[in-house]
Amino acid sequence: MLEVTNLDCIRGERKIFGDINLSLKPGTFLQVQGANGSGKTSLLRILCGLLAPARGEVRWQGANIRSLGEDFFTAVTYIGHRSAVKDELTALENHRINNGLAGVELTKEAATEHLGEMGLAGRENLPARLLSEGQRRRLALSRLLSSSTRLWLLDEVLTSLDRAAVTLITSVIEAHLKSGGMAVVATHQELNLAAGSFERLQLTL
Amino acid sequence: MLTMFRWIVWRDLTLAWRRRADVLSTLFFFVIVVSLFPLGIGPESQLLRSIAPGVVWVAALLASMLSLSRVFENDYHDGTLEQMLLTPQPLFLVVLGKVLAQWLVSEVPLALIAPLLGVQFDLEPHTLWILFISLLIGTPILSLIGSIGAALTLGLRGGGVLIAVLILPLYVPVLIFGAGAVDASITGGNIQANIYLLAAFFLLALVFSPWATSAALRISLE
């Protein structure tokens, strides 16, 4: 369970948002909405521990995430809008390395299968710089297929994805929620989820 | 725990191989800077022999500065570094993996080619051997300390110059004892003492710098 109490975020001299209180139970989907610059990315980066909040705290299973350190990271998958895809590496290498960094060892066969599921079949051995923006996004998101973490933090996941990919990602998130996972997603698009309980957080400027 | 370390080293070596030009430019820089001195000074073997240790070592410091500014830069821009900070393993392992790869790719070739360049300075075979050894022990210290500077200046404009200002002063002990060992083998001084001191610095850097680099990375990514 993820709990957030009295969270303030200050970037530069400006207060981006204040007094955010949240409590996320297993199986919950939280959609974070708000205008550009309202702090969606900052909130997600605070939730995964990359950014320190100005005030308040984020607790995971009752303990502050800043004291949990690496133990917390075993429970989290964060996909930011910079996709962590290396131009010089092939799609397959990118996928296996991204999993390796997250502590998941993938065989070539398993990785190929994931890429096929994400609609990248036949492009496994292409350098990532030859992929289109949407395909790079699909490649970055293929990490979700092998992820066994409880909490997913996804920042603007649906940008530059086509309709088929949005449906695919929706079903992956649904399966995650059904198995007791949680997801916090910052997006402007509406996701039609058939599973899990849906919550919404509106950030204002 | 070691699987992730292996992934990082393998990944960085693959990336370096695919971007060979970057690696080669550092090596050529080193070769050219060292070669300019005999050309500029002329064939006075006595003078050349006495400046050789300092020249080769200073060139090695400068060449390692060039490659260091790139250690974290690319990963920072494409978001991989964020993912590295979120790995379930201690961050210093990530840092050690990256530093090891950087050393293998950019510094070991310097140590390997240095004896060849030493011939231009009319050095004895025994001295060339000491030059190689001193570089082999000294360059990992450069990589380790340099990674702190690279992490601190991450994402700053003109970071390359800033790294030099921050880190070159910290290289001074390495320069003194590294060049000192080579010098001792020419003048008949105590080589061992210098090498041992270098090794001691290496152990010190190995313990402290990954920790400092990790802290600097966390600050840089906030």
Could you describe the 3D structure shown?
- Chain A is an alpha/beta fold and about 200 residues long.
- Chain A is about 30% helix and about 30% strand.
- Chain A contains eight helices and nine strands.
- In chain A, strand 4 (about 55-60) and strand 5 form a beta hairpin.
- The radius of gyration of chain A is 17 Å and the shape is globular.
- Chain A starts with a strand and ends with a strand.
- The relative contact order of chain A is 0.21.
- The model of chain A has no long low-confidence stretch (mean pLDDT about 90).
- Chain B has helices at about 1-20, 20-40, 45-70, 75-80, 80-85, 90-120, 125-150, 160-185, 190-220.
- Chain B is an all-alpha fold and about 220 residues long.
- The two termini of chain B are about 25 Å apart.
- In chain B, about 45% of the residues are buried.
- In chain B, helix 1 (about 1-20) crosses helix 6 (about 90-120), helix 3 (about 45-70) packs antiparallel against helix 6 (about 90-120) and helix 8 (about 160-185) runs antiparallel to helix 9.
- Chain B contains nine helices and no strands.
- Helices cover about 85% and strands about 0% of the residues of chain B.
- The interface between A and B is medium-sized, with 29 and 24 residues.
